[in-house]
Amino acid sequence: MSNKGNLIVISAPSGSGKTSLALRVLQRVPGLEFSVSHTTRQPRPGERHGVEYYFVPVGQFEEMIEAGEFLEHARVHGNYYGTGVRFVQERLEAGVDVLLDIDVQGARQVKAARPDVASVFILPPSTEVLEERLRQRAQDSSEAIDRRLEVARQEIRSFEEYDFLVVNDDLETSARELQSIVLAVRCRTAVQRDRAAGIVARFGG
Ligand code: 5GP
Predict the structure, then answer these.
(1) What is the distance in A from the centroid of ligand 1 to the CA of 14?
(2) Which of 10, 184, 195, 204 sits in a 20 to 30 Å window from 157, CA-based?
(3) Is the pTM for the entire model greater than 0.90?
(4) 81 C-alpha vs ligand 1 centroid, how far in Å?
(5) Ligand 1, atom 10, residue with closest C-alpha
(6) What's the CA-to-centroid distance between 60 and ligand 1, angstroms?
């Protein structure tokens, strides 16, 4: 895969406010696009095919796995989720930075395939806030919420595997932090090597 654009992964337990955070940053940072995942879960009210997710039947998802169409895929909360490799590859080659919102298992797969990925973990400020956000959302059944809380308890232990950490207490503060991370990734020496080499060459000597 080409290295012209940067790949940035964010992971967070559901209910951590990650989606609002990502949306805010995507609106503000030019040259950053969201990779819309495929999932076999049912759409929540208001979710649209091709916007939040591509909602596909299990059979189709399994065919896509067989055909090698995913950069990574995982089972989360009893459903399949996966990142289509074609979109990511095409945008990175075009020099666009791509944001993936994926779970811890998926982030590990991406890191193994692309060690240059920048990874960000979003932590909710407390277990009480997470539970309250999940229950307020009221889009999932009580059992689904309990399952998500249990997965969250497991997932947050993985924060140390990530390069950056944002505690999502205040949305605006967290958005500015995530925005800064994207800008810092763009300033990495490895990313700017060709540009810098051009400048240095003109110094001669
Ligand atoms: P939700 O169903 O609440 O939208 O998402 C549940 C979890 O699945 C979240 O942790 C989210 O980051 C994760 N997820 C969403 N898309 C993908 C994906 O393409 N791959 C993986 N591995 N996880 C995903």
Answers:
(1) 8
(2) 184
(3) yes
(4) 6
(5) 103
(6) 18
